[in-house]
Amino acid sequence: MKLADLNNVDYESTQATTVQSEYRPEITSPEWTDYVLSQLEPNELNKGCPTVAGVRRLAEKLLGRITRSVSLVAQVPTPDNGERSTIIHEIDIEEHGTFSGACDVCRANAAPPFDRNIVSSADTKAEGKALRRALKINVIVAEEKDEGAGTESNKPDKITNSQVSYIDTICRRNNIDVEKATKKSFDVKKLNDLSNEQAANLLRDLSKMQRDQNLIGDLQGYAENWKEAF
């Protein structure tokens, strides 16, 4: 390059872009479940719960390649067993081992239209249980909730303490104003006025800002005492 040409170089465009490393809590942290849920796309959530397709994608993204995924039919529906189907699903994940989940569905307690496809319904539920055990998340998948998976399916209606903690962590690390970021999408007076599902959506938006700092814009300005006013 000639000396004269150096004057025409756009140094701003040639500078390396500084990328903020994404905060990733330990898998044993109380913030882990909310971190995982924040990685889901909008079409991978159903009424606040992750879909099987969503957790399957995240299992490979966050843990490793799924090398084996099989369903074992432990019980087929017959008149003698009350039309009950029991499925055991096993998955192998590279460097993480084998995880399994079992589920039984009977025609009497399956909501339409699942009562016509109880084997495939039990299969989907069992895979979802195996995947969430692998991911170590403490919420059920949407396919389990649709047919009454039991007490563990109870998802809190209000924002949880772990969600508040994770929101604070992301905002502090990325200099984001918690109140401004929240009120950009939700008309609330306090962060604790958010529902669990709204908090999950907020976490997803904050995670996107963390990956792309240009999205923060005028939301900059983390305040250490934000909990006192908001």
Record the SSE blueprint.
Layout: H1 3-6, H2 11-14, H3 32-38, E1 45-46, E2 49-50, H4 52-62, E3 66-75, E4 84-93, E5 97-106, H5 118-135, H6 142-145, H7 161-174, H8 178-183, H9 196-211, H10 226-229
Antiparallel strand pairs: 1-2, 3-4, 4-5
What does this structure look like?
With 230 residues, the protein is α+β, with helices and mostly antiparallel strands. The protein has two domains: 50-152, Double Stranded RNA Binding Domain; 161-229, no CATH class. Helix content is 38%, strand content 15%. It is built from ten helices and five strands. It has helices at 3-6, 11-14, 32-38, 52-62, 118-135, 142-145, 161-174, 178-183, 196-211, 226-229; strands at 45-46, 49-50, 66-75, 84-93, 97-106. The strands form two sheets. The protein has a three-stranded antiparallel beta sheet with strand order 3-4-5. A hairpin with a 2-residue loop joins strand 1 (45-46) and strand 2 (49-50). Helix 3 (32-38) crosses helix 9 (196-211). It is elongated, with a radius of gyration of 22 Å. The chain starts with a helix and ends with a helix. The model is unreliable at 11-19 and 147-154 (pLDDT under 50).
Question: What is the gist of this entry?
Answer:
With 230 residues, this protein is an alpha+beta fold.
CATH topology of the largest domain: Double Stranded RNA Binding Domain
Provide the β-strand percentage band: 5-15%
**Quick check: average pLDDT?**
85
**Strand count, sense and closure of the main sheet?**
3 strands, antiparallel
Helix content: 25-40%
Q: How many beta-strand segments? A: 5
Spatial order of the strands in the main sheet?
3-4-5
User: How many individual domains?
Assistant: 2
Report the principal-axis shape. Answer: elongated
Secondary structure category: alpha+beta
Pattern of helices and strands: HHHEEHEEEHHHHHH
The span between the termini is 56 Å
CATH architecture of the largest domain: 2-Layer Sandwich
Low-confidence stretches: 11-19, 147-154
Helix count, DSSP H or I runs of 4 or more residues: 10
**CATH top-level class of the largest domain:** Alpha Beta
Radius of gyration from CA coordinates: 22 Å
